[in-house]
Write a structure and sequence with these properties.
It is a single chain. Helices cover about 40% and strands about 20% of the residues. α5 runs parallel beside α6 and α6 packs across α7. β14 and β15 form a beta hairpin. It has 17 helices and 16 strands. It folds into four domains: about 270 residues, Aldolase class I (TIM Barrel); about 30 residues, no CATH class; about 50 residues, no CATH class; about 120 residues, Alpha-isopropylmalate synthase LeuA, regulatory domain (Double Stranded RNA Binding Domain, 2-Layer Sandwich), CATH 3.30.160.270. By secondary structure, it is α/β, with parallel strands linked by helices. Strands 1-2-3-4-5-6-7-8 form an eight-stranded parallel barrel, surrounded by seven helices. The protein has a three-stranded antiparallel beta sheet with strand order 11-12-13. It has a three-stranded antiparallel beta sheet with strand order 14-15-16. The structure holds 3-methyl-2-oxobutanoic acid and zinc ion. 3-methyl-2-oxobutanoic acid (KIV) binds next to β5 and β6. 3-methyl-2-oxobutanoic acid binds next to β5 and β6.
């Protein structure tokens, strides 16, 4: 059996199904490029038949990515498979990933099909996909709750019809590690041509076992792991790429397996995703959280000072967490910035570099030290923002609050290209700003979440604000960073409104 584990990243498909993790086209392409740099073998770019937006995202990623396979998901029906193929066919190395449920509960209540019908659909879908694409992956949805011998039959049919990869998902996060490992071993032993396909697993985290189940399956012989950056995904999420990879690396003595992952790109990838979806990495998150390498107890600190490995099983450097490199000061030139952008993985046009340079200079005037994270925030703000319906031109705010005065805000904005201004009060300065924006845009969304996070240390750190809004049943997340948290809050709110407006436009297009 091969000693290489293929890493199939589904951040852009299953990960994007995570609440509040929607990304626009540019953001998806940007993340796909980072995944390529991280060294994943396959990027599942989306579900092309789900919407025109999904189709375009998969097609653009297929065109942009050169060093890994690009997969499109499809239900086991011709129309989905054809659409998935149309979206991935321009990739250097395309893959169609088709799936059908195999558990009795799904057959009876969701599909209303018999086992014989599912076997037939599997055969037809995989044969059709194989007639279009050189690499076809077949997934037996809800495999962990399926009858093991029926699963043997389905997998056998899929391999005979041309599937090169067989994926066994724990769709509802129900499996237990030893049991899941036994299932993989059973399939490898009982499926007649199991050596003609790579066995893969796709584990959800409902019981917090996604990584444990993935590792148990790998130990039992699975050679593809389906994972997401930071474990984002449907409900409680998927197996986290960084946790699976670092377990394989740190315990190489135990697993003795290799992957193509460049571990030093792990932290930059998690950080980029966090910036794009506007959700901070929780401090307690294994591998990449702010506390992952922080030693609080005196005994631990003493031990680490004497010999790092007393309490550290891996180094921050091994996951690309360098100690906040100082990058750009007031007097740094454009060349230094360009070099830093290259290092951070941003390949920008000359005009875009000028735009980032001007913004970094403005920031360096307000803030003593500009770190990698600050530069990334500027790039996302200046370059990867969605085209705006609403734009902030000017903001003035007073925070005074006593029995005579209330906090107030005066704003000038562009709404559909037209300049407008307005001022009003609020119970606090942020409330005043948000109220004024609502008046100017004539919108009245519900604020579901508001959070502020310092991007780096220091009292002059940029504040990264995330807001989540809901209006007419549509939700959107907005994110922005600025050295002034009131400005960051206004920009994040406006960013969320722009995303709401974009979603409404897309909804209208889908209806038309
Ligand atoms: O969880 C699941 O079963 C899936 C399949 C489509 C692979 O996401
Ligand atoms: Zn899934």
């Amino acid at each position: 059996m091969s000693d290489k584990v293929f890493i199939f990243d589904t951040t852009l498909r299953d990960g994007e199904q995570s609440p509040g993790a929607t990304m626009n086209l540019q953001e998806k392409v940007r993340l796909a490029r980072q995944l390529e740099k991280l060294g994943v073998d396959i990027i599942e770019a989306g579900f092309p038949a789900a919407s025109q937006g999904d189709f375009e995202a998969v097609q653009n990623i297929a065109r942009a990515v050169k060093n890994c396979q690009v997969a499109g998901l499809a239900r086991a029906v011709q129309r989905d498979i054809q659409t998935a193929w149309d979206a991935v066919k321009e990739a250097e190395d395309p893959r169609i990933h088709t799936f059908i449920a195999t558990s009795d509960i799904h057959l009876e209540y969701k599909l209303r099909k018999t086992r014989e019908q599912v076997l037939e659909m599997t055969k037809e879908a995989v044969s059709f996909a194989s007639s279009l694409c050189p690499t076809v992956e077949f997934s037996a949805e809800d495999a962990s709750r399926s009858d093991w011998d029926f699963l043997v039959q389905v997998v056998d049919v899929a391999i005979k019809a041309g599937a090169k990869v067989i994926n066994i998902p724990d769709t509802v996060g129900y499996a237990q590690p030893q049991e899941f490992g036994r299932l993989i071993k059973y399939l490898l032993e009982k499926v007649p041509d199991s050596d003609k396909a790579i066995f893969s697993v796709h584990c959800h985290n409902d019981l917090g076992l996604a990584v444990a189940n993935t590792l148990a399956a790998i130990e039992a012989g699975a050679r593809q792991a389906e994972v997401t950056i930071s474990g984002i995904g449907e409900r409680a999420g998927n197996a986290a790429l960084e946790e699976v990879i670092m377990a394989l690396c740190v315990r190489k003595d135990y697993y003795n397996l290799d992957t193509n992952i460049v571990t030093e790109q792990i932290f930059p990838s998690c950080r980029l995703l966090s910036m794009i979806i506007g959700q901070p990495i929780p401090p307690y998150k294994p591998i990449v959280g702010a506390n992952a390498f922080a030693h609080e107890s005196g005994i631990h600190q003493d031990g680490v000072l004497k010999h790092r490995q007393t309490y550290e099983i891996m180094t921050p450097e091994s996951i690309g967490k360098t100690s906040s490199d100082l990058v750009i000061g007031k007097h740094s030139g454009r060349h230094a910035l360009k070099q830093k952008l290259d290092e951070l993985g941003y390949t920008l046009e000359e005009e875009q570099i000028n735009q980032v340079f001007a913004a970094v200079k403005r920031l360096a005037d307000k803030k003593k030290q500009v770190y990698d994270e600050d530069v990334e925030a500027v790039v996302l703000e200046e370059i990867f923002r969605i085209p705006d319906k609403y734009e902030l031109i000017y903001l003035y705010c007073t925070a005074i609050s006593d029995d005579k005065a209330s906090p107030s805000a005066a704003l000038k904005m562009k709404v559909d290209g037209e300049e407008k201004q307005e001022a009003t009060f609020g119970v606090g300065p942020i409330d005043a700003v948000f109220n004024t924006i609502c008046r100017l845009t004539e919108r009245n969304p519900k604020l579901l979440r508001y959070s502020v996070n310092a991007i780096t240390g220091g009292t002059d750190a940029q504040g990264e604000v995330t807001v989540r809004l809901e209006e007419n049943g549509v939700t959107a997340v907005g994110r922005a960073a600025d050295a002034d948290i009131i400005v960051a809050s206004a920009k994040a709110y406006i960013n969320a409104l722009n995303r709401l407006a974009k979603k409404e436009r897309e909804k209208r297009v889908n209806v038309e």
